[in-house]
């Protein structure tokens, strides 16, 4: 469960980075930030959907 929390924080920071790069018109930063947000965010969402909160043993 700790990994999911850390990855969720990384996804939120990547989203913040995407917003900042849009304001400064930094295209490369936008692309990498959006990619990081997509990868880490997808991992967090699918882990929560599959295991639930809190994660239980099967």
Automatic annotation (TrEMBL):
Transferase keyword on record: yes
Pfam families from the UniProt entry: DUF2759
Keywords tagged on the record: Acyltransferase, Lipoprotein, Membrane, Transferase, Transmembrane, Transmembrane helix
Gene Ontology molecular function terms on file: acyltransferase activity
InterPro entries: DUF2759
Spans through the membrane: 27-49
Protein's name according to its UniProt entry: Apolipoprotein N-acyltransferase
Organism of this sequence: Saccharococcus thermophilus
């Amino acid at each position: 469960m700790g990994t999911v929390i850390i990855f969720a924080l990384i996804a939120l920071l990547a989203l913040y980075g995407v917003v900042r790069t849009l304001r400064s018109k930094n295209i490369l930063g936008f692309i990498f930030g959006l990619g990081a947000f997509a990868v880490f965010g997808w991992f967090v969402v699918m882990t929560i959907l599959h295991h639930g909160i809190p994660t239980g043993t099967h």
